[in-house]
Amino acid sequence: MNFTQYTLIGAGVIHTAPIIGVWGASRLSKLYGVQLRPNSSLAVLMQHRAVMLGLLGGYQMYAAARPVHQVAALSAGIISDLSYILLVFCSKGDLSPEVRKVAFIDSGLLLTCAVALGRLQGLL
Hints:
This protein has helices at about 5-15, 25-30, 40-65, 70-90, 95-120. With about 120 residues, it is mainly alpha-helical. Helix 3 (about 40-65) runs antiparallel to helix 4 (about 70-90). It is globular, with a radius of gyration of 15 Å. The mean pLDDT is about 95.
């Protein structure tokens, strides 16, 4: 295996981890350090976020074995991580430590995926 494949598998595992949030507001509350009422609009939106991250992570792991998908999978991860980091950075609200921790983890993923993409494209 090469650096790109390891990166895609690692990013895929990390992006897939929040899928546990699909099983309810209590799991999401623990994961992000926020209070969510079961079956509330916000809980449903957060469950959808869990599904979308699960799809991204699954695609990244799939792409590790399919070179034709690697650029797209790395790019999708970069866009996802960068958008979350920017939202956290630009937020004027009181964010939970868990939300900030996710941004810190996403910063590492962003850097790693950018390096992998650069290497794949022959830029690094």
